[in-house]
TrEMBL record:
Zn(2+) binds at C48, C51, C97, C100. Belongs to the MsrB Met sulfoxide reductase family. Binds 1 zinc ion per subunit. The zinc ion is important for the structural integrity of the protein. The active site is at C120 (nucleophile). Its EC number is 1.8.4.12. Residues 9-131 form the MsrB domain. Its cofactor is Zn(2+). The keyword Oxidoreductase applies. This is Peptide methionine sulfoxide reductase MsrB. It catalyses: L-methionyl-[protein] + [thioredoxin]-disulfide + H2O = L-methionyl-(R)-S-oxide-[protein] + [thioredoxin]-dithiol. Keywords: Metal-binding, Oxidoreductase, Zinc. InterPro entries: Met_Sox_Rdtase_MsrB (IPR028427), Met_Sox_Rdtase_MsrB_dom (IPR002579), Mss4-like_sf (IPR011057). The keyword Acetylation does not apply.
Amino acid sequence: MSGKIHLSDAEWRRRLTPEEYEVLRGHGTERPWTGCFVGTHDAGTYVCAACGNPLFRSGEKFESGTGWPSFTRPVSPDAVTTVEDRSHGMRRSEVRCARCDGHLGHVFPDGPPPTGLRYCMNSVSMRHVADGAPLPALVEGIDAAP
C-alpha cells in the first residue's frame, strides 16, 4: 500500500459521484441487492473506488445471501482497517480502506471457512479490475502523507 491519502471534504466531493461520496465519506450503505457486484463472479481484483487501493481478490468472494458482495479476507492484512461502529443501535466492525479511510462496509464473524469472516461490502465503494488488466494508478492526494 502506498502512503495515506488525505483530501479535504470539498476535494472528495469533486472526485466522487454523489452515491460514492455518500457511502465512502458519509458512511452510508447501498440498499441490498442493488449493487453491481452482488452476483459478479469475474476473476480479478476489487479496488477502492476512491483511491485505487487493492482490497479483495475475486477468489475470496462468496454468495452470502445478504444482498451485498461478500469476501472471506482482504488481499493483505494492511489493505483495510476496522473501526468499532455503534450506529443504528448495533455494535459492528466497520471496514475502511487503509489508504484513504473510505467506508467500504462491515465485517461479521459468520463467514465460511477458512477465516469464518464475512466482509460485507458496498459495490459502490469498489471497482473491479479483471485479471490481466493493469491495476489503476493510485490516486494521488493533496497533503498525501509519505
